[in-house]
């Protein structure tokens, strides 16, 4: 089940202010000192809140990383669900699959290390988030349309596997270019 917009519990005003302070401080730390600096005690100090306040809302670095990524994830989802083609509706299923994979690679280029923290801090979290399920279901729907009769769910998992942030970061640090990674996906789609 994916959460429905507006179904989130109401947040107290002071809690909302603290959440904003924490997210601003965390984003500033990541921007100035890198993802490695994303330690909850340092975020608390930078936000001017108690460490317990941070831990109650974000029990680990992965949860905080997910929160930092939330706005860009929403934009990415809007682009492939209702944006202009070829990423959004209006192009063929094959064109949309390619556009989705390329857009995901672009996103990893900008947020790969933070996504890696979000995905690896808690075992298997990558596969249990609403975002992954949405990405998977979107690809499975497009694969089923492009190639009726194949196992679309397996193919969707197979296409998403190389988009794991740790894999991408490893490839980039090993000298592989974004262009090469996108070309690799194009070859997989042939």
From TrEMBL:
- Domain of life from the UniProt record: Bacteria
Query: What are the DNA-binding region positions?
Result: 39-58
Q: Does the keyword DNA-binding apply?
A: yes
Q: Which Pfam families match?
A: TetR_N
Q: Which key words tag this protein in UniProt?
A: DNA-binding
Coiled coil ranges: none
PROSITE patterns for the chain: HTH_TETR_2
InterPro entries xrefs: Homeodomain-like_sf (IPR009057), HTH-type_TetR-like_transc_reg (IPR050109), HTH_TetR (IPR001647)
HTH tetR-type domain residues are: 16-76
Q: What is this protein called?
A: TetR/AcrR family transcriptional regulator
* Native source organism of the sequence: Kibdelosporangium philippinense
């Amino acid at each position: 089940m994916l959460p429905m917009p507006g179904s989130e519990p109401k947040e107290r005003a002071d809690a909302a202010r603290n959440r904003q302070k924490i997210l601003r401080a965390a984003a500033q730390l990541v921007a100035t000192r890198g993802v490695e600096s994303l330690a909850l005690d340092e975020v608390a100090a930078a936000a001017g809140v108690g460490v317990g306040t941070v831990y109650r809302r974000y029990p680990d670095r992965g949860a905080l990383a997910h929160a930092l990524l939330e706005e860009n994830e929403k934009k990415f989802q809007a682009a492939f669900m209702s944006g202009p083609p070829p990423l959004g509706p209006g192009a063929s299923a094959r064109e949309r699959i390619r556009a989705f994979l390329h857009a995901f690679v672009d996103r990893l280029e900008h947020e790969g290390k933070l996504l890696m923290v979000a995905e690896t801090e808690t075992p298997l979290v990558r596969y249990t988030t609403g975002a992954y399920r949405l990405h998977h279901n979107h690809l499975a729907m497009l694969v089923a349309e492009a190639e009726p009769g194949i196992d679309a769910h397996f193919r969707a998992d197979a296409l998403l596997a190389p988009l794991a942030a740790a894999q991408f970061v490893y490839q980039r640090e090993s000298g592989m270019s974004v262009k090469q990674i996108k070309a690799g996906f194009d070859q997989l789609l042939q």
